Amino acid sequence: MINHGPHGPQKLYGDSMSITPQDACKRNRETCELAPIVPVLVVDDAASARPLAEALVAGGLPALEVTLRTPAALEVIAEMAKVKGGVVGAGTLVSPQDVQNAVDAGAQFGVSPGATDELIAACEALGLPLLAGAATATEAMQMLARGYDLLKFFPAEVSGGAPALKAIGAPLPQISFCPTGGVSLANADDYLGLSNVICAGGSWVAPKALVAEQDWSGIEALARDASQLGK
Ligand code: 3PG
C-alpha cells in the first residue's frame, strides 16, 4: 500500500514478509485439505478459546476460523494459536487494520466475506494468506485475474447453494472454493461432492449454547461427525 504523504509516496508495509497470491492459495489449499469443515467461530469469552479449540481439534477439525466480531476475538486467536495441532485463522477481515491485528494475534490465514483492493494489498504485504469471498462468476474472475484460484463462496446457501457453485464451476473449473454461509450437517455433502470444493465453513459445530455450557465433549462429538463428511 502506498501512502502519499507530505514527502511523496511512502510504503506503509515492508516487503520482508509479503506473500504472493499463488503462495497464499497454496497455503490455504493445504489448510483447507486438513478436514472437510472449517469451524466458523464467534467467541465472546477468551477463557473459552483453548478448550474450544482443543475440542474441535480432537474431533478432527484442525483448521479454525475465528471471526473478528467480538471484542475478545484477537485474544481468542492468540489463545487458540497455542493449541497443538490447530491452524487458526481470522475471519470477517474487512480493513487493513483488521489484517494487521490478525497477524499480530498470530493468525495463520485470513478469511473475508468479500474482497477490496486495500484488503488484498494488506494481506499480501503482511504475508497473511487470504481466503476472499466471492458469490458470482464476475467476482471469482476478478480474483482469478489477480492470481487467486481458491476462494470462499459466500453467502453460499442464499447465493444458490451447491447447484450455483456447480454451475460456476462448469466454465471456471480452475477456481476452487470453500462454501460458507448456511452450510450445515444436512447439506454439506452436496457441496463437498463438487469437484470445485475443497472444504466448507460452518458455525454449527460450535453452537453458542454448548460453548456457554462449556460442553466440550458435545462440541468434540459435533466436530467428529463433521470430520466424516464428504467421504
Ligand atoms: C459467517 O460468516 O458467519 C459464516 O458464513 C458462517 O455461516 P453459518 O453460521 O451459516 O455457518
Structure description:
The chain is of the alpha/beta class and 231 residues long. The protein has a single domain, classed as Aldolase class I (TIM Barrel). Helix content is 39%, strand content 18%. It has 10 helices and 11 strands. Strands 7-6-5-4-3-11 form a 6-stranded parallel sheet, sandwiched between helices. A 3-stranded parallel sheet has the order 8-9-10, sandwiched between helices. A two-stranded antiparallel sheet has the order 1-2. Helix 2 (49-58) packs across helix 3. The longest helix is centred in the first third of the chain and has 12 residues, at 21-32. It is globular, with a radius of gyration of 17 Å. The N and C termini lie far apart (43 Å). The model is unreliable at 1-11 (pLDDT under 50). Bound molecules: 3-phosphoglyceric acid (3PG).
Summarize the structure.
With 231 residues, this protein is α/β, with parallel strands linked by helices.
Could you name the key traits of this structure?
binds 3-phosphoglyceric acid; 6-stranded parallel β-sheet; 3-stranded parallel β-sheet
Number of helices: 10
Q: Quick one: how many beta strands?
A: 11
| Alpha-beta content class | alpha/beta
What is the N-to-C order of secondary-structure elements (H for helix, E for strand)? Answer: EEHEHEHEHEHEEHEHEHEHH
Proportion of helical residues: 25-40%
- Stretches where pLDDT is under 50 for at least 5 consecutive residues are 1-11
Hetero groups in this structure are: 3-phosphoglyceric acid
Mean pLDDT: 94
Terminal residue distance: 43 Å
Report the biggest beta sheet as strand number plus sense, adding barrel if it closes. Answer: 6 strands, parallel
- Report the top-level CATH class: Alpha Beta
What integer value in Å does the Rg equal? 17 Å
* Tally of domains: 1
Strand content: 15-25%
CATH architecture: Alpha-Beta Barrel
